[in-house]
């Protein structure tokens, strides 16, 4: 009986050793995985510094203005005659959203307006009526409420986007593509977004953040690209 008890204790101890060995191996594998992911992200974003990139929505902070402009403020907004002034998308309830001129920030990302009800026109892109491709970005939302482009993914082929120029002339664009692109692929897709989806046709590309929020990266994990061509 004594020998039997000793054998049982030895067998149980061996099981514990095997169990802890397996868990240790799994823990090491998981740790290596996390390190590889962190290293890849660091290298990826480092490589993109200074390049032309999709807008990076920073909605976690409280620095965005969530105050909807008054009718008077909208009416008093003016731009040069050849520049885009207002954006209207009836299907999404967007009516005369002010179009503010924007450049790129120090990270090479397209800037967005501080107010979540305004949209930004990338000054290096086309102008309405001049045959190029306008690039316009807007916020998904602020810390507490939805932004001008929250429902951008709902547009489908054939929907109309209107851009009013500084001289009052209105240009209508028909949606031909509305695509959700993962964040890791969005910078590459910018080369597509900067061109017309139909050769020789004037167009506009609308860009916003969408998808799940990443607290570690401080942005959403996808970008929405809506491309529309001028209606003759």
Describe this structure in words.
- The structure is a single chain.
- This protein has 232 residues and is an alpha+beta fold.
- The chain has two domains: 1-48; 52-230, Beta Barrel (Sortase, Chain: A), CATH 2.40.260.
- Helices cover 27% and strands 29% of the residues.
- It has helices spanning 2-48, 71-75, 183-193; strands at residues 84-89, 94-102, 119-122, 133-138, 160-165, 170-182, 203-214, 219-230.
- The chain has an eight-stranded mixed barrel with strand order 1-2-3-4-7-8-6-5.
- It is elongated, with a radius of gyration of 26 Å.
- The model is unreliable at 1-12 and 43-52 (pLDDT under 50).
- Identify the strand order in the major beta sheet: 1-2-3-4-7-8-6-5
Question: What global shape is seen?
Answer: elongated
Query: What gap, in angstroms, lies between the N and C termini?
Result: 97 Å
Low-confidence stretches: 1-12, 43-52
Key traits:
alpha+beta; 3 helices; 8-stranded mixed β-barrel; elongated; disordered N terminus; about 230 residues; single chain; Sortase, Chain: A; 2 domains
Outline:
Helices cover 27% and strands 29% of the residues. With 232 residues, the chain is of the alpha+beta class.
